[in-house]
Design a protein that fits this description.
This protein has four helices and five strands. With about 120 residues, the chain is an alpha/beta fold. The chain has one domain: STAS domain (Transcription Regulator spoIIAA, 2-Layer Sandwich), CATH 3.30.750. Helix 1 packs parallel to helix 2.
């Protein structure tokens, strides 16, 4: 079995920060998607995925991220990535997804950016 975990570290209101560790591949992508969508279903429509501990990502993992992004959008939410590994960052750039999937150097940066965007959103 491939090593994988998704751990929700911060859940407040409609925001969830989750740390993803291990390999994102054909064996783990369905679990990534299911666990992230469960957070959305629990009312956390804004997700930050900290990918700093991801050691490998194939097309299945990449597709899971795209699916999570789409599901978040359907509930007027967002998916933001943090600490994206170099290879995955290159895939996001090559496919043009980096233009719609914001990435931050750390989870802390992503949390600050989310807070700032909420402060400027009209009520």
């Amino acid at each position: 079995m491939t090593d994988f975990s998704l751990t929700a570290q911060h859940t407040e209101g409609d925001l969830a920060l989750a740390h993803v560790a291990g390999e994102l591949d054909i064996a783990t992508a369905p679990r990534l998607r299911a666990q992230a969508l469960a957070l959305i279903e629990q009312g956390h429509r804004h997700l930050i995925l900290d990918l700093g501990a991801v050691t490998f990502c194939d097309s299945s993992g990449f597709n899971a991220l795209v699916g999570i992004f789409r599901c978040a959008k359907t509930v007027n939410g967002t998916l933001v990535l943090a600490a994206v590994p170099d290879r995955l960052e290159r895939m996001l750039d090559l496919t043009g997804l980096s233009a719609v999937l914001p990435a931050h150097p750390t989870a802390a940066h992503a949390l600050v950016a989310h807070t700032r965007s909420q402060d400027t959103t009209p009520a």
